[in-house]
Every structure is written in C-alpha cells, then in structure tokens.
Request: fold
Amino acid sequence: MTDRQVAHLQTDARAEILQSIRSCLAESASLNPHESPASSFDVATAPFISDERSLVEVFKQQLESVGGHCAVVGGETELRSALQEILVEIESKGLLIRSLALSDSPLLGAIARELQADGHEVAVTPATSDLFQFNVGITTAQAAIAETGTLVLEQASERNRLISLLPPVHIAIVNAVDVCATLREAISRVRATCETSPAITFITGPSRTADIELTLTIGVHGPKELYVIVHL
Amino acid sequence: MTHLTSETFDANARAALNDVQLRGALRNATSLFGRRRLEASRSVDNWEELRTQARAIKDETLLHLDRYLEEFTANAQNAGAQVHWARDSVQANAIVCRLARERNARLAVKSKSMVTEEIHLNSALQDSGVEAIETDLGEYIIQLAGETPSHIIAPAIHKTRAQVADLFTEKLGIDKTDDIAHLTLTARQVLRDKFAAADIGISGVNFAVAETGTILILENEGNIRFTTSLPKTHIALMGIEKVIPHFADLELFLKLLPRSGTGQHLTAYQSLITGTKRNVDDEGPNELHIVLLDNGRSRMLSHPITRQALACIRCGACLNACPVYQQIGGHAYGSVYPGPIGAVITPQLFGLAKAAQLPFASSLCGACREVCPVKIDIPELLLHLRGEIKQTSDVRNQKSERVERNRAEQLAFKLWAAVMSRPRLYEWSGKTFRFLQRGAVRDGAIRKVNGWLGRLAPPLAAWTGARDLRPIEPETFREYWRRADHD
Reply:
C-alpha cells in the first residue's frame, strides 16, 4: 500500500466508521426503545475527614500499606533533616545514595546546594541519557490523595516525569495543604491542569509486579523504594 | 509453537484438562484474584451503586458513540495529538507501520495492549523491519517463549518460575536461578537498554476522555511510563469503545477497574496523557498518535444485547469467576480475549463461524455477571449468540450428525419430563437407581467398576464422556422432608 493510499483510506475510514456507528445505532433503536439514562452520574460518597492533620495520617497509613514510606515534618529545617535521615536509611538497605537527581522545583533549590555541600553528586534535571545512572530521584508532588496513599505529579509544574521514574529510589516532597481527601477531589483538581500538563502521573507505592507465579516483586521497571515527605 | 484457534475449542479444552501443571496454576491464580476482588469490592460501601453508574455512563457513551468519538478527536488534536481511524486490523497495522517507516524506526517498545494482540501488530511491524519488544514482564516472558497471553491481566500465569528461568537462560544467557526477584531484575536490566534505544513507544488505552482529549493508562510496573515518556514518538491504539464523556467519570472507573482486576484500591501508576509537550525542551515524546480501531465493534451496536459487550473495561474478573476458565485457562479459547467475555466478544469480532463453540463453553451459572464491574449480562449474551449460531447451523447441516444428536437429546428430555412430572415414578426410579449403584460410589461419583460403570453406553456416552456420573444421594430431599416433618 502506498502512503497516498493509506492517507486516502484514513479519510474514508473515519467516515465509514462514523457511518457504521450511526446506522447500527439506528437499527438497534427499533429493537428496544431505550430509556434515557440518568442525567447526573453523581454517586453519593460518605463524608471523609477534612482535618488537615488527620488527612495526612490517613495518607501515611495508606502509602505504608502499599510498601511506601512517609515522614511528616513541620517546617523547612525539619524537611532537610528528614531528607538526611531518609538517605541514611536508604544506604542502610544496601542501596547507593551517591548521585542525586533533582527536579527544577524552586523548593528544591536550597536543598540541592545543601546536599552538594554534604558531598553528594547532585544534578538538577540531568540529561535523560545520564539519568539512567543516578541513584536517587527527588521531586515535589503537586497533590496527594489520602484515601489511596497516592501522589499526583503534574508535568506543568516541574521536570518530574523521568526523575520520578528512572532512579531506583524516588523521594517526593508534598505540602500538607495539597493532600486531598478523596480520589474524586484529586480528579476534579487535576481536571484544570490537564490543559497545560501533557502528562499527569498518579503514583501509589513503588513499582510492582506479580507476573511470575503471582509472587509480588517490588521494583520491576520503576523505583523499588518510594519515600514521601509531607511538610505542614 | 503453533497457536490454538477458536475453531478447535473442544480439542483445546480437552488438552488443557490433562495439563496438571496448568490446572494447578489456574487454581491458584483464579482463586487468589477472586478472593482479592471480593475484599476490595467490600472496601467501598456503595459498590453496587458504582457498578450501576459505571454501566449508565458506558450505555450513554455507546448510544452517542459517534458524537463522543468526534469530541474526543477534536480535543486530543487541540492538545497536539494526531488521531487516526482504522476500519480493521489491516488499516491499523498499515498506519502504525507507515508511522514507523517515516521515522526510520528500527526498535519499538510496547506496553501491554490487548488491541495490538487483536490485530497482530507485532508481526506486521516485524514484516516492516521493526523489532517490537513487549515490556510488561508477563508479556515479555511469553514473547520470548513465542506464546500468547493466557489471562487478560496476568499473561504468563501458565508458566512456572523454573520455565521462566530456563527461558531466560536460553534467550538472555543468565545463570540458572529459581529466584523470582533475580529473574525480575534481569528483565529490568535488559529492558532498560531497550527503552533507552527505542524509536517508538506503543501503548494501549484504558479510558479516553471526550471532553479533554485525555487518554488514561493503568499499570503496576512502570513500563507504560517508560513507553510513553522516553521514545520520541508515542503511538496509542484503542478500540472505539474506550471513550467516556467526562474527566470526572474517571473516578468511577478508577475505583472499579483495579479492584475488579487485581484487587488493588489503585494500581501503582496511572498515566493521564493529554496531547504532546507544550515546549520543545519539555520532557516526553515529540508526537502522540492515537489510533482508533473499529474492527467489528460498531457492528455490535446494532442490538441492545450485543452492544453490552462494548461496555467491557477488560478487568478479567469474569475469567477468574468462571468455572470453565478455571479449568481450561485462556489458551483453549484460541482468542486474544478468553473466558466469558472472550466467548461473547470473539465470535462478534472475528465471525460466528470462526468461534461457534465458544458461546457453548459455559454452564450459564451467571458468576461472570455477578462480578462484572459494569454489569454486563454475559449469560444473556451467550444465549443470544447461541441462538444466532443455531439458526445459521440448522440451515447449513440439515442432515448431519447434529440433527441425529438432537433427536437423541429430544428423546432423553421427553423421558426425563415424563419421570419428573410423575412424583411416584420419580421416587421409585430414585430408589431403584440407589439400589443399583451400591458398591460403585467412590469419592462422591460413580467410579469405574469392572470396566463399564462410570461410562454410559452410546448414545448416553455423550453425557459421561466429559462428566462424572453423579450418584443418587443416600437420602433424597423428599425422604429428608418427611423425616424432618415427623421430628
């Protein structure tokens, strides 16, 4: 088939498919007069905790139940010491923490300088080909979902798409005010950003598979370890 | 290896029943997934309501599918995606191969997609000189083995760790191991090089949102994120039934799909992709191509009963719940879509004649309908398709064996009806058979004694050929009732 033929088929295909849909629907209308479905799809949901602190507690609990780790801290100084502690903990598990890749979030600027002063090899948004070699990726998260322990990463806010994926460890920092109670809340929140973010990623725990003998194995393609720091 | 076809379903099923290892694996998988689904469905207090609502959304979409597809196309294009329409598998493969050729692509990484299996995209790409590598661990294993998936969400459940280890030793040159973590790590390393080198990433689509042009893909491993983030070109293929009207509808489906599939509240990753990157320096592919595939789907809209099958969200719950699938597994169906949903989709997509045995591969117990997150009445569909098949085959084989078998069947049912409608005769027959079966009952079934019991003589052998002959209970219900009444 020549390319011109393919292009021609394309236009035809669209018209043909739409025509087929319309004529088949018309045919079925005579078989069963369809009641018009409910105009609202609103499903009542039970009221959920609204207190910020308890939301964070629920988030932490849910994240830990899927194999992630969560630290809740107060201000910015506490945030840095929490990060240090996490790096020590990662190292104690036998994983490397020598090279750290950070996203370009303004929040991480000061942290990058400090980590560098501590002797880590630090790069802010390194080239993709280099990113494969990094031990730890650090990003922020634009939102979180308490009921499922989920992080929400929006591409429009920072370069987080690959840093949260390629290194064996992902550390994410999220502001407590961005913790949504429910999946519903998070979806209505990201609805607006999908216009500016070609990719929005929901992350719930580390990468996992059970494809061999249904045995759960952590860290198949994405990170083996997921740490989240929630700051108030 | 030769792949099984739906036309030989009976023989496939018989072979599967004799595969002890397969049946053990199936028992583990289906009971585990079934248990997890039940637990997960109880973690929301309005599960039934969610199912009803999800079905209402699907029904509404299907009734106006033309409109929603056009809305989706316009919004996806506005966000920078290119949308292609394919009437059938030939057109879909031609589109993908042309895109690959125009980009001088040699290597494509693929994430799990049933629709690409349906159209045999991998072999079409191979013919065009493009190597397509499956990156989902289960799919990667069966691709190395030259096999097909046996389960919608766990494609390699039929293989043991030892078989995977042998395969990896042979194809990837690793030392033999039975450590699953090590096998997984091996795949991780091999596939990272592929992700880094691939020219094209090919994925499926779980949901396509009309109002924003967003596609959503769920996974646990991270290979979909790689496939849709690293290569310069991302091609997403979807059946035309994947569209849903509103972004907010995603909530319902994200609650239903993971719970029904793996029993998770949410899978590890959801990628919501809306068009391409807004600035050249941003992360992600330069182009996104979305291929909308009909391939027999629009035809299913022509009847309210058959239309239901298009509501399917491919969770695999009906496979795990099905007593037939539990015994024979996915390969026997000879189709990319196995189990109860496969038995109703396969004949509709590929033709009744090619899969005429599948709608009969069910006891109509209704377990599939019970677990379906979008309340598809699969038994109703099976009966509808049986009717269609019967009508066409009656015309075709007027003087065949089938007609004779029908006569024997009719006679048997007449006899049955005669006994059932006469209480005294019914009771007397029960007592007589119970007397006759003495000594032949073992483990709840009538076993072979002296070479003849347990198998009936023709034409009744058709019944016992694949079934145990059940004995009459030591105490019948009528006897129990009389006794209980006196107590």
Q: What stands out?
A: The first helix of chain A runs from residue 3 to 31. The helical segments of chain A are 3-31, 52-65, 76-92, 109-117, 128-131, 183-193. Chain A has two domains: 1-31, 36-231. Residues 152 and 202 of chain A are 5 Å apart (CA to CA).
